[in-house]
Specification:
Elements (H helix, E strand, L loop, with lengths): L12 E2 L6 E2 L3 E3 L2 H4 L5 E2 L5 E5 L5 H14 L4 E6 L4 E9 L2 E10 L4 E3 L5 E3 L5
Parallel strand pairs: 1-4, 5-6
Antiparallel strand pairs: 1-2, 3-5, 6-7, 7-8, 9-10
Length: 125
């Protein structure tokens, strides 16, 4: 499998052209963009993962799905702890995503397309 050369870290992702920002549970951003950057933009992410909680589930399911798609994030993985499901969104469009795989129950693997080309085991969730 090809190494993606990503960097670990945490912080806010700006939503360009707005005064808003998100702090996703996981954001995968290419190393060449992330290394040494003082700030990062959501449109630089190649995958964003949000894990719902009782306080933010509606935002993760609706608002963030729409915004990540609008800003062109290629893949959005929603891990819904309340419903015990995962859904993978791809093919960003103006109002969200054109393609939705799921919801699938925890225990079914998530197949992440290229550039990842891996399967995530969800049986331990």
């Amino acid at each position: 499998m090809r190494q993606l050369k990503c960097v670990k870290g945490s912080g806010n992702l700006d939503l360009p052209g707005t005064e808003n920002w998100y702090l996703p549970d996981i954001a995968i951003i290419p190393e060449e963009l992330a290394r040494g950057a003082k700030s990062l933009s959501v449109d630089e992410a190649i995958l964003v993962v949000e894990v719902t909680s009782e306080s933010n589930a509606a935002d993760d399911r609706v608002k963030k799905r729409r915004r990540y798609g609008q800003f062109g994030v290629p893949l959005y993985l929603l891990v819904d702890r309340m419903d015990r499901t995962w859904t993978l969104f791809s093919d960003p469009v103006h109002d969200g995503y054109a393609t939705e795989v799921g919801p699938h129950p925890f225990g079914e693997p998530v197949s992440l397309p290229q550039p990842f080309g891996i399967e995530l085991d969800t049986s331990g969730i």
